[in-house]
Structures are given as C-alpha cells and as structure tokens.
C-alpha cells in the first residue's frame, strides 16, 4: 500500500495514530540552528542592542530604480551602488544602527575604493543582513491576495550568503485587511515564514520574521488589532512546529494602526497601547528583538510611535527596521549630486539618531523638518 506524504500546513494539525505516536515519542527532533545556535543567539542580541536598530536598504533593483527616478537618476548599477555607498559609509552610523539589510547585489558590491560593503559595515560594528525571499505572487484560491515565493534553493542561497558575511536574513510576506484576510492567506503567510526561518537558522542566519499587515483600507484600529493577533498566533504556531529557536530570531511587525484611509488618525499613545497589547498576547519573551517596519508612515510618525512604545519596560528590545522612514530625507538632500553627499549623510544621521532616542524612550520631536512630517503611504505598495 502506498501512503501519501503529508506536507501541507494543514497536515501538521492531523492527529497521529496510536502507533505513530509511540514511534514519534522515540524520535529526537533537533532544534533548528543546530551547531549555529550559540552564534544565532549572539547575533540576535547584537542587533537588538540598546539605542540601535536596523537600516533596511534591501529594495530590489526595480524599486531602488523608482527611488532614484524620484530625484532624476537612471536605474543603473553604478547609480544604485553610489547611493548605497553614501548610506553605508556614513561616519558614526554604527552608533545608532546595529544591522543593515542588503539586497543580493549590494552584499557582493564594494565601494569605489575597493572595500567590500560587508567590511564597511563590520568596521562600524553593524551586522550585514540579506533579503532572501523572491517576492510576492498571486495566491490561487484567495481573495486577490498574495503569497511569498523563494523556498526553493533557499538553503544553498543562505549558505552562500553566510560565506559572504551575512549574519541575518529577511523574508517579507504581506496580509491585506481589505481582502479579508482569508484563512488561506494567513496560513500560507505563517507557514512560509516558519519554513524560511528554520532553513535560515540551519545555515547560520538569524531570520527576521516579517508578516506585514498592510496599511491599505479604511478600517479602524480595533480591526487591525484583531487581524494582527490572528496572524501572529498562526506565525508562532508554525514557528514552533518547525522547531525554530525563538532566542535566535527577530520580528519585523507592522505597528497596530488604523487603515490609511480611516477617517480618524490615532495618537502615538493609542498606537503604542494597541501594538503592545498585541505583542504581549502573542509574542514569547524569549524573542530578543521587535524591529518595527514603518510601512508608509511619515518619518516623524514612525519615530513618535516607536518612542511611545518605549515609555515603559518591555520584555523585548523594541526598536526599528526602517527603509523609507530613514531614507526619504536622505534622497531628497542628495539629489544625485556629489557635492551633496556630506549633507545627505548628515540627514541620515539625524533620522538614525532620532530613532535611537525613540528606542530609548527619550525622543522629543523638537526641531523636526517639514519633510519629516510628510506621509509616504502608497496604496498597493510593492517592492
């Protein structure tokens, strides 16, 4: 008799027979991470260090091209390299930034002086990270939702990235509240994140677990909280099923906010209250770091909301992993002109320091520019 092999997420919940249960009791399951376990814990703690957070510059070549086009530059490797060199060679960045998520192209690039970007980061005590997913595609059978591809070949890619110097990884999938979200989409997101996390740990990379709940929609903050709790309960169920070492992961959640088109904005205090409620209900204290994404908030909003969450003690390091909320002012200051590099780097330090203070709960918001107050939400945003 041929027995079908169960490999879907649903199979994990099927009750075993008495015979299989007895056999399973004799099986020793090796926790993900294996020989890398101590290093994974050390890496996660280094990234989740006081007053520091993550600079996310892992935009695909196409998305980086959109950023460059906003200041009149062509999407060429030379221009992408020049922009990322500006960011990564900023003197003093390591005081506020503990990790940088890179796109594959950037991981293997060097400065115009021939120094690898990996070494540039290491010299500032910044951990190099790498985006490992292969992007979003339509999810058949769903309500116009997406799933994240990239598990095929992931183990070998992670092994190569580790050799190149990367020490943590990022995988982004999304959940849309206006589309439901359907149970299928939530389960697919959670299962994919868990499989990725186990594979990354098995190859020495701390996985950043990122199910982004998109800002799209006109729903209130209560609905966002409801969905966030459902998503994170599924994520941690499957992380546990895949024997992921919780002390060796980092989370990259969305803040619990109203939909971007909701008629009323929420205060930083309300956002902090709802976000921390969700985290305390769903995230084990073993997880070392919560590195929030900005998700289209303005630079100022992202910083103020983070600061509000650090007004009392948390069981985790509550910090940031921002892309647009660290880069927007930088790009507009640079404008692709060599003579503006120093000013652009100063703009990066201003934003990095502001979020460092927010991580410590001591940001005041004084002296912020009008540019920092501009929202960056884009409906249906992809990258």
Automatic annotation (TrEMBL):
Organism (species): Triticum aestivum (Wheat)
GO biological process terms, semicolon-separated: fructose 1,6-bisphosphate metabolic process; glycolytic process
Lineage of the species this protein comes from: Eukaryota, Viridiplantae, Streptophyta, Embryophyta, Tracheophyta
The entry's keywords: Chloroplast, Glycolysis, Lyase, Plastid, Schiff base
GO CC annotation terms, alphabetical: chloroplast; cytosol
SUPFAM superfamilies: Aldolase (SSF51569)
Catalytic activity: beta-D-fructose 1,6-bisphosphate = D-glyceraldehyde 3-phosphate + dihydroxyacetone phosphate
Major localization class: plastid
Pfam families linked: Glycolytic (PF00274)
Region Disordered: start-end pairs: 362-383
Pathway where this protein functions: Carbohydrate degradation; glycolysis; D-glyceraldehyde 3-phosphate and glycerone phosphate from D-glucose: step 4/4
Lyase listed as a keyword: yes
Stated family: Belongs to the class I fructose-bisphosphate aldolase family.
Subcellular location: Plastid, Chloroplast
Protein name as it appears in the record: Fructose-bisphosphate aldolase
EC number(s) reported in the record: 4.1.2.13
Molecular function, one GO term: fructose-bisphosphate aldolase activity
């Amino acid at each position: 008799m041929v027995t079908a092999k169960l490999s879907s997420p649903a199979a994990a919940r099927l009750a075993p027979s008495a015979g299989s249960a007895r056999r399973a009791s004799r099986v020793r399951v090796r926790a993900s991470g294996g020989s890398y376990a101590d290093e994974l814990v050390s890496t996660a703690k280094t990234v989740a260090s006081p007053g520091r957070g993550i600079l996310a510059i892992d935009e695909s070549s196409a998305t980086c091209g959109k950023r460059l086009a906003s200041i009149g530059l062509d999407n060429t490797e030379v221009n992408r390299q020049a922009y990322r060199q500006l960011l990564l060679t900023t003197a003093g960045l390591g005081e506020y930034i503990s990790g940088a998520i890179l796109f594959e192209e950037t991981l293997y690039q060097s400065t115009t002086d021939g120094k690898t970007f990996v070494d540039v980061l290491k010299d500032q005590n910044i951990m190099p990270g790498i985006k490992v997913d292969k992007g979003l595609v339509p999810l058949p059978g769903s309500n116009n939702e997406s799933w994240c591809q990239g598990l095929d070949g992931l183990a070998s890619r992670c092994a190569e990235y580790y050799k190149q110097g990367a020490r943590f990884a990022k995988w982004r999938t999304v959940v849309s509240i206006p589309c439901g979200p359907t149970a299928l989409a939530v389960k697919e997101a959670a299962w994919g994140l868990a499989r990725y996390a186990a594979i990354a740990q098995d190859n020495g990379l701390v996985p950043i677990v990122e199910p982004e709940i998109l800002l799209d929609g006109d729903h209130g903050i209560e609905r966002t909280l409801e969905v966030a709790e459902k998503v994170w309960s599924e994520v941690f169920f499957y992380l546990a099923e895949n024997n992921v070492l919780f002390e060796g992961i980092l989370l990259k959640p969305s803040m619990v906010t109203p939909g971007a088109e909701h008629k009323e904005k929420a205060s930083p205090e309300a956002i902090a209250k709802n976000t921390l409620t969700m985290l305390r209900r769903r995230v084990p204290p073993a997880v070392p770091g919560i590195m929030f994404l900005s998700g289209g908030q303005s630079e100022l909003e992202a910083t103020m909301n983070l600061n509000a969450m650090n007004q009392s003690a948390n069981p985790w390091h509550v910090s940031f992993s921002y892309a647009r909320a660290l880069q927007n002012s930088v790009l507009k200051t640079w404008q692709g002109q060599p003579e503006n590099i120093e000013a652009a780097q100063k703009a990066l330090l201003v934003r990095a320091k502001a979020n460092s203070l927010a991580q410590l709960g001591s940001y005041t918001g004084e002296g912020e520019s009008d540019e920092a107050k501009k929202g960056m939400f884009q409906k249906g945003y992809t990258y």
